[in-house]
């Protein structure tokens, strides 16, 4: 069995994300993702109010929206990171630390696999650069490509919504 360049990239991504997950632990990994997504959600929901508040107190018109979004996102993100730090400190001082690290390893493994699936999907989906030469020499890519048909329908629905202006 001879591994291609993509196989080494996939294995490196999976190993790096697995060890990162094991080092950080499941709680920290999940809370980091949650902090990012919840902060984006809060900024998306509340930026109109922030824009009005900034415009009522300054002469900024167009840049007030951007400033409002960024300020709300940063404030929410910092708040969630402080909560995350407190929870992780409590977990690390408890007997659950080993379990947290083990589950973090498996979460990182899953995260690495998802990144590899995304790369395979992009290689198959895009037509700008011919990367089929790389994928032809890969030992791992055929196994990952087996799951791609499950993504075809959701991807085509998203593309239809983008082209129709719904999204």
From TrEMBL:
Return one Gene Ontology term, BP aspect.
toxin biosynthetic process
Record keywords, A-Z: Membrane, Transmembrane, Transmembrane helix
Provide the transmembrane region boundaries: 6-23, 30-48, 63-82, 102-123
Gene Ontology terms: cellular component: membrane
The record's listing under Pfam families reads: Colicin_V
The annotated topology with respect to the bilayer is: Multi-pass membrane protein
> Subcellular location, in the record's words?
Membrane
Keyword Transmembrane helix belongs to the record: yes
Question: InterPro entries from the entry?
Answer: Colicin-V_CvpA (IPR003825), CvpA-like (IPR052719)
PANTHER family reported in the protein's UniProt record: COLICIN V PRODUCTION PROTEIN
**Can you say what this protein is called?**
CvpA family protein
> Which organism is this protein's natural source?
Oceanispirochaeta crateris
